[in-house]
Specification:
- It is a single chain.
- The chain is mainly alpha-helical and 169 residues long.
- The chain has one domain.
- The chain is 43% helix and 5% strand.
- It is built from 10 helices and 3 strands; from the N terminus they run αβααααβαβαααα.
- The protein has a 3-stranded parallel beta sheet.
- β2, α6 and β3 form a beta-alpha-beta unit.
- It is globular, with a radius of gyration of 18 Å.
Length: 169
């Protein structure tokens, strides 16, 4: 498919994976089951037994792949070997050193950022200024889970307050 896209004149290919509609294959690591049950209409209105089972056993029943930084790297490398157009890699990359290593290795021409920008929109500026610090994103998936009911932003603090109501706010 990438070769066909290159032949058709595409300017570049971003290597990504998954959408919510395919069973949420874009999630890696923690799956915020409580948020899905409380915020997503399709789960809010489910049978109480389903909600009980998912709340108590959902993390054992639905296991996303473990989180690893640059989880689409192998696919990007394979595509890069087949096309002459730029290849962009996205997939949990938050460490500037890892970004540099990926580009220098030739596995991708560019790094696309998503969740790293949600928590810190100035992250690229910080990299440009020479900061070696990774983005503050911990890959908790809350930004994606709340997307159906709330504005796009980092919700890590909101989940901490849900789990520990005595912390205030």
């Amino acid at each position: 498919m990438a070769e066909m896209m290159a032949e058709m004149g595409f300017d570049g290919i971003e290597v990504s994976c998954g959408i919510g509609e395919d069973g949420m294959s874009m999630f890696r690591g923690d799956l915020p089951v409580e948020v899905f049950l409380d915020e997503w209409v399709m789960y809010k209105n489910k049978d109480p037994l389903f909600r009980f089972v998912m709340r108590h056993f959902g993390r054992r029943m639905v296991k996303p792949p473990p989180f690893t930084q640059a989880f689409n790297r192998e696919s990007a490398r394979a595509i890069k070997a087949k096309v002459e157009i730029p290849v962009f890699l996205v997939g949990g990359i938050t460490d500037p050193a890892a970004m540099e290593k990926i580009v220098n290795s030739g596995d991708a021409d560019y790094i696309s950022l998503s969740r790293a920008l949600i928590i810190d929109p100035k992250f690229p500026e910080k990299i440009r200024e020479g900061s070696p610090k990774p983005s503050g994103c911990i890959h908790c998936n809350l930004c994606a889970a709340y997307l159906v009911s709330e504005p796009l932003r980092c919700y890590r603090g909101k989940m901490i307050r849900r789990q520990n109501p005595s912390t205030g706010s």
